[in-house]
Write a structure and sequence with these properties.
By secondary structure, the protein is mainly beta. About 5% of the residues lie in helices and about 45% in strands.
């Protein structure tokens, strides 16, 4: 599902009767497009000469995470569930009416480059991973409630007193919420827990791997979306941040107000 700057794609792969010796099944090469010809997401390619991964920077979504849910069950039921999570540096992506997913290569190994005797798969199974080339195309029509949904924009009613972290906006979309914030170079706290909370105490988690964790002063962060909960009040919570000098723990609960049109 697409909303905001995020595309979530869940899938199920099932092995055929003639492929009983497969140890796993994973999507390796794919391309996702919309009706306007935009490339939403595309698999990175392995450059054998340079021995490195080459990404296509012309995609609408330029960052991708992926994984599978039930690897251990594959040998039993010959099916595996997986997901892709595409993200963009843009604040918002135009939501298409439909998308086309074209897969051209599958493999036993989740990461098929390089597929050689030094790979983890070879060390575990004493053989190279099987690669299955072909073409599988799926057309997906998106639900109108997501296409027609308007984003809701919030801003902090107040900033943290020391102004070392300044939140500029929080935009709420049907499947994701994102925010932009500025970090002062003199920030002296370690932050590991940031989330959205409504007036009923419902928590919408931060979906990032690291928080305030690099040298850039301008950051973006994604949260689980409270869009369809229609909260009456919404807060941005920083929980148990540690002041580096004293190791003291501090928490902040910042009220969010809707931005004026």
């Amino acid at each position: 599902m697409i909303s905001g700057n995020k595309l979530n794609l869940a899938y199920t792969l099932k092995a055929g009767e003639s492929q009983k010796d497969l140890k796993g099944l994973n999507i390796i090469k794919y391309e996702i497009t919309d009706g306007k010809g935009r490339i939403l997401g595309k698999a990175a390619e392995w450059d054998k000469d340079k021995k490195q991964v080459i990404k296509d920077n012309n995609c609408e979504f330029n960052s991708v995470g992926f994984g599978t849910y039930n690897e251990k069950d594959f040998l039993k039921n010959r099916a595996i569930k997986g997901f892709f999570e595409f993200r963009s540096e843009k604040t918002n992506i135009e939501i298409p009416e439909s998308i086309t997913i074209k897969v051209t290569q599958l493999s036993e190994n989740p990461i098929n480059y390089p597929n050689n005797v030094y790979s983890d798969f070879y060390k575990k199974n004493n053989r190279l991973a099987q690669v299955i080339d072909g073409e599988w195309t799926i057309n997906v029509k998106l639900d109108k409630k997501f296409i027609e949904a308007e984003s809701i924009s919030y801003k902090p009613a107040q900033q943290i007193n020391n102004d070392l972290i300044k939140f500029e906006y929080i935009n709420i979309y049907p499947t994701v919420a994102n925010c932009k914030y500025i970090v002062d170079k003199n920030l002296n706290i370690n932050v590991s827990s940031v989330y959205l909370e409504d007036e009923k105490g419902n928590v919408h988690r931060n979906t990032e791997y690291g928080i305030f964790g690099n040298d850039k002063t301008e950051h973006k962060m994604n949260f689980e979306s409270p869009y369809f909960d229609k909260p009456q009040k919404l807060y941005l919570v920083i929980k148990d941040a540690e002041i580096r000098d004293s190791k003291k723990k501090v928490s902040y609960k910042i009220e969010l107000v809707k931005s004026e049109e």
